[in-house]
Structures are given as structure tokens and as C-alpha cells.
């Protein structure tokens, strides 16, 4: 599904400065959303359906409210997000939509993302305006949507939770690394803030080549060989299989040369202290009774928590392993905005697209948290927001 923005567009004598056209997964134009887009671009009004009663008769009134250009853009964006939640023949679904389905989206689906209450209310307003328009032109029946009290509370609670600083400062990372008792634990921490892995995804670092959807993919051993065969190569890609990723969605992850060299060193030295473990997983357990077995899904989180509690007790409970992933994304986002000379290189949306791909987010809206986190990073690290990126673990992928 795509949203295409046409500028200085003219059709049948009508000129549009901007016109959004939404297409389905087969690149076919969606008629009903496009009709609404034409109306918003040409007329610029939203429809409100009101019921007027005098005690004996009831009359349905449709009132129009002028919308600003910014609101129109936001409305179309929220409709586009909603349409992406639908499958099958979308125009037919929209024409036959019922209140319960849209209420489910507003109260169950949308709140699962890290959104504010204002964003939720804006989505409700946009969908109300859209379906009122369809009702006005005789396409669908009148629908009325509700955001429940429990949904409001959930979103408000989530918003308060996201105020917690999720960026882990370099000084804290350095202290944690110094406190690690072995190479494995240091590397597991680095997988969070240098690669962007979730805790459970550390199990996805497998050694041997394998086929993914009938296509051969290199394991870490093959990448280790590349270190020797291609001494000038600086970035190495590895496919993280869906079975180890959230929601089963595999993605490409990237190692810079120093990190891959350290992974190889661990594989050839410390890991072999347990009689050359037979498991295909890179990281193995070292606790008695389980030596040489692959780590579990929560292993990385326990390592991080234990190190923080033991060596930085004043920060106990303030950070989690997942915050290292947020740190990776924040620094990547910043590096995509600012080049090595401190100049702007691309738009926020382009930078967010890179972050979204590297994190494996299904929706770029989820990645927008890193706009806020970047401001936190700049403040905490004492940086100028326009300075070049102070971190060395990122290379531009395009």
C-alpha cells in the first residue's frame, strides 16, 4: 500500500496544489479514500452529522467545518494508517463498514503502538470525518465512534511510561562493559546498542549457513572467513531469521568490522572453554550444569539487570536491556540526520525510514519515538544538536 502525493496537479479543469492518492498492495487506486482526498484538497471541509429533535420528529443535519492544511495532511495520514490495518478488497470493506470494527481499531489495535492521547483523538476525528463524508454521498450508513474510558487511561499510562529516559549514556555503557566478567557478556551488551537486537534476538546469531525461503544465507562462520578474505570490508550483513525476531519478522542486521572481529575472537577462545559446544548458537551458557548450551530468551536481560544492580546500584530499575536497543536507534537516527561535517543530510522521514528498517518495525509510526529520544541524547551527552555524530559504530547504508 502506498500514499502518493501529487503536486500542481490538474484534472478536468480543476487544479490541486497537493493531492494524496492511496493505492492498495497491487498499486490499484483506492476509490473512496481518493474521493475524500479530492474533497479535502478542493473544498477543505469536514462533515459533522448531528441529530435535531423537537420531541415529535427527528432530523439528521450535516454541518461542515473548515480544516487547515495541516489538519488535512494529518487526517489523510491517520486514514492511511487505518487502511494499512485492513486486508482484502478495501473499498468494499469501507462501503460496508460497521461501528464495531472501527471502534476495535481505535480501542484495541491503535493503543498497542506508543501513541499519545492526542494522536488517538486525532485518529478518531479523521475516521469520523472520512465516514461522515461517505455517508453524506450515500456510500455507507452513519457510523459513530467511541474511545472508551479504559482506552484513554491505558494510553495516558503508556504516555507517562514513555517519559522515562530510554537512552543509555556512553558513560553508563562504558561502566557496564568494564564490569563484565567475560567476553560473552560484553558482546551481548554491544549487540543491544551497536546492532539494535532485542534481548531474545541474541539467540538468532547462528554459526552455520542456512536457507531462508529457499535462499542461502551466510552464518557467522562465513562472515568470520570474510574478515580474512576481504580485509578492506568494513560492514558485514547478517540475516536474523524470523523465528528469533518479534512477530516472526526476519530482518537484516549489520556488524562493523571491529565488532565482528571481537565476535570471532570470542568464538575461537572463550566459547571453546566448554569443549567446542555443538549448538549452532554463538552465545552459550557458562553456569554449572548448563555449560555449553545455548542461552535462553531472557539471558541478555538478566545479564544487564545483574550488572546494573551490582555495579551501578543507584540506577537500579531505571534501565533495561531493551533501552540499549532504543539507544542504538536514537544514535542511528541522529547519524542519518547529520553528516560527518555537522550538516543536515536528509529529512526526518528519510532518517526514520532507515531506523524502521534496521529495527524491523512494521509501521514507521512506531519509530517516531526516536525524534524525542534524539533530543534526550543531545541533552544528556552535552552535544550540540547540529554537531556531527560522535559515535563510530554507524555507517550510512545508502
Shape: elongated
- Characterize the main sheet: 2 strands, antiparallel
- Number of spatially distinct domains: 2
Structural class by sheet pairing and helices: alpha+beta
How large is the radius of gyration? 26 Å
Low-confidence stretches: 388-398
Distance between the termini: 23 Å
Helix segment count?
Answer: 15
- If you average the pLDDT, what whole number results? 85
Instruction: Report the β-strand fraction as a percent range.
Output: 5-15%
Q: What strand order characterises the main sheet?
A: 1-2
Percent helix, as a range, is 40-55%
Order of helices and strands: EEHEEHHHHHHHEEHEEHHHHHH
The count of β-strands is: 8
Describe this structure in words.
The chain has 2 domains: 2-161, no CATH class; 170-319, no CATH class. Helices cover 45% and strands 14% of the residues. It has helices spanning 31-42, 69-83, 90-95, 99-109, 117-136, 149-161, 170-179, 183-195, 220-229, 257-268, 299-311, 322-337, 348-359, 364-367, 369-381; strands at residues 2-11, 14-23, 45-53, 58-66, 210-212, 215-217, 235-240, 251-256. The chain has a two-stranded antiparallel ribbon. Strand 3 (45-53) and strand 4 (58-66) form a beta hairpin. Helix 8 packs antiparallel against helix 10, helix 12 (322-337) packs antiparallel against helix 13 and helix 12 packs across helix 15. The longest helix has 20 residues, at 117-136. The radius of gyration is 26 Å and the shape is elongated. The protein starts with a strand and ends in a 17-residue tail after the last helix.
